[in-house]
Amino acid sequence: MKALVCHQITDDFSGVEVRDIPVPQPGAGEVLVRVKAAGVNFPDLLMSQEKYQFKPDLPFTLGMECAGVIEAVGDGVTDWVPGDEIIGGNKTGAYAEYAVLPAAGLSRKPSPFSFAEAAAFPAAYITAYVALVRRANLQPGETLLVHGASGGVGMAAVDVGKLLGATVIATSGSDAKLDKVLAYGADYAINASQGFRDKVKTLTHGRGADVIFDPVGGDVFDESVRCIAFDGRLLVVGFTSGRIPEVKVNMPLIKGFSVVGVRAGEYGRQFPEKGRENQAVIRQWAEEGKVHPHVYREIPLDDWREAWRLLTDREVVGKVILIP
Q1: Helix crossing, 152-163 with 175-184: angle to 10°?
Q2: Could you tell me the CA-to-CA distances from 173 to 30, 170, 179, 206, 209 in Å, in that order?
Q3: What pTM was estimated for this model as a whole?
Q4: Domains in the chain, ordered, with CATH?
Q5: DSSP run (H or E) holding 32
């Protein structure tokens, strides 16, 4: 089968290539999935550079999330049968024609979604849900500031924020992208390339944002400290800017805000019952048509470099999907 394999750690992705490898076999508690679509995420790129917190042994097949059809089940699997359409993932393995996944982490593909939409759904929406509901306790009527709002996780945060009744301010560095995010549901949009602090203060009548969703880090985090409301929650989701910021602790003290880390997968591992509840809620939203993952492009697996280029060049609005 075809698979996108990282066989060497390099900064320029030269250690990544499509290879023909044996079809894996499911063990106890696992299923074999014929992958129909796989979501592209920044951690996939970072893993190939050994810049992500999870560092698998070489060689490994990349890809954290996918949608597909079950081909076979391993011993002890009773909830799934061949032919079931699923979404799921692991830390690796999804960028391939076939993937072995833990049965306990699977969900049924929401019936309104295509396979591509389903592959764009799990990582982005579980991150948005854990961040906004579990970690920030976002309330109706509060103001949510979403940075990197045109990315897959950012658009999911806009979608979930609106569903929860918040007023959503979206930021990005492109007016064209912001037009799409406004059409997607954001209440206000700010081009962050010129700064955003003063505009956020104006839109919130001087109060600042109650919750700030920050997958960017760097200068964006630094400026967010200057426009967060008293009793606000600044959500640390990631560092796509490349710089991990620091905050002097007198700022949270004086301004009365919290800096809150978000690791959605780890949250589910630490609190398994809550993790199952999280998955159940977002899947119910999907079945009811309340959330809408946005697919930017579907790209064949052989053209994976184009998919990664779109991410690194910040061209994506929503999620890029690889088709094995």
Answers
A1: 30
A2: 42, 10, 11, 23, 19
A3: 0.89
A4: 2-121+293-323 (3.90.180.10), 124-266 (3.40.50.720)
A5: strand 30-39
User: Mind listing the pLDDT tens digit of every residue in the chain (324 residues)?
Assistant: 999 999 999 999 999 999 999 999 999 999 999 999 999 988 898 899 998 888 999 999 999 999 999 999 999 999 999 999 999 888 899 999 999 999 988 999 999 999 999 999 988 999 999 999 999 999 999 999 999 999 999 999 999 999 999 999 999 998 999 999 999 999 999 999 889 999 999 999 999 999 999 999 999 999 999 999 999 999 999 888 878 999 999 999 999 999 999 999 899 889 999 998 999 999 999 999 999 999 999 999 999 999 999 988 888 899 999 999
Residue 28 burial (CB count, 10 A): 9
